[in-house]
Amino acid sequence: MTDPEDQADFVLEEGTGEREWSALLARTSRPPLEQSFAFGASMATFGRVPRRFLLRRKGEPVALAQVIEQRLGPLRLCHLLRGPLPLYEGDPAALGRALALLRRRYRPLTGHIPLFTPELPAGPAADALCRAAGMGRVVTGYSTSWVDLGISDIDSGLGGSFRKSLKKARGEKLSIAISHGGADLDWIIRHHDAHRRQRGLMAPSARQAAALVAAQVRPRDVLACVAKRDSGILAGALFIRHGHAATYYLGAGTEEGRAACAQHLLLREAMGRLAADGVRWLDTGGLNSDGMKGVARFKLGLGGELVTLAGTYL
User: Fold this and answer.
1) What residues form DSSP beta bridges with 306?
2) What local confidence, expressed as pLDDT, does residue 4 receive?
3) Pick from 55, 57, 85, 52: nearest CA to 69
4) Which DSSP string do the residues of 23-82 spell out, in sequence order?
5) Cα–Cα distance for residue pair 49/229, rounded to 1 Å
6) H or E segment and range at residue 222
7) Residue 299 · residue 287 · CB < 8 Å
8) Which has the closest alpha carbon to 105: 72, 134, 130?
9) What pLDDT sits at residue 292?
């Protein structure tokens, strides 16, 4: 618990530009997409208001948090998605104080409904930290996995079933094309959205994906990968980079592509490309979407660290 005498050393301030925010985000251990400047900018496309806060201790920034405000009649739903993020690993005082100050700012009595999903692993420590900030859990935790791209042999971390499918895909004589936009990206988004609507899946819509791509300041932070046979695209995958991390944002494929295990080959090729570009961590983009158990098994085959967050708190 933070010493009361030290609490006055903490100040929460709002308003940070893209360059400073991105530089600070790069100092965090494993930055999630939802705390990137571009994610907030993409939400503004849908009439939501991104607010970016820095927690300073004696003038020095120690944590950051991006809150997305959404108007709902006379109320504002205030979403803190996968934050705050400490700039110094293992700094519970900064996290606890950031949560407390944000909770004080977003009070239900003022028409602000705080819905905070902190980037904290589920467990008694995280729950105690949130309760000390005056919040109670209302939704159970989101799960994802983080793949370490900094290891010398990426293939060694893959699961046996994934390696078997990868071997099959490599024997299919597919060609891989990697770009930062254009027709291949359009194909990925269009086919993903058709599949999403057909199956009623909880996944990003075409509008969300297009807005996120458009919000990127650096074109290289968008990685569109497609697998082709002759001139036809069989499968595609979209990755978004944020600092020294990247997220497998969405994938799409045809029946022929699934039979050829094309998505396995795309993931492996993209992981190599991202690692070569200095990306250390790959967030597989969530594992608990309804109706997508096969996708979850596929992602777990990448051999990443499974993480379940503490949940959403009000």
Assistant:
1) 145
2) 47
3) 52
4) HHHTTSSS--GGGSHHHHHHHHTTT-EEEEEEEEETTEEEEEEEEEEEEETTEEEEEEES
5) 43
6) strand 222-229
7) yes
8) 134
9) 65
